[in-house]
Design goal:
about 20% strand; two-stranded antiparallel sheet; alpha+beta; about 45% helix; globular; 6 helices; single chain; 6 strands; about 140 residues
Length: about 140
Amino acid sequence: MQTSIFRNGQPLTVDERIDELKERLAELPKAGEHHIWEAFTLLETLSTCRQDSRDRRYFREAMDTGAYLEALLFLLSRARPALELQHLSFSGSLWSCRVAASDSDHSLCGAGMHPDRCAAILLALVSASCGRGARSLHA
């Protein structure tokens, strides 16, 4: 499936682009570099990270070296509010990930399941960032 910012000649909203990203991830065996970059550019919770030159440089360097896990963990920590990795495990053929806001409220949370570890973390980040709670996102 090809990434598109237009459908039927009309521009997609940010929410539609995020939904499309989740759908593409669910169909693929693993997350690619461009999926992580797409989340970085789309998610409102990462806007502060995008605006900070040091954060952008650190993220870009991690991505350039193929350190996708480190880049995703960095994005979790730089999200506003900051997210913590609450759970990450591999069972059967799926990675299961749960993230939650690091403040005491923990109302902002997200979950993802995928055969690829990075994709599971990315899905959890997207889920939490979209304010859709701990709804599990499966591959």
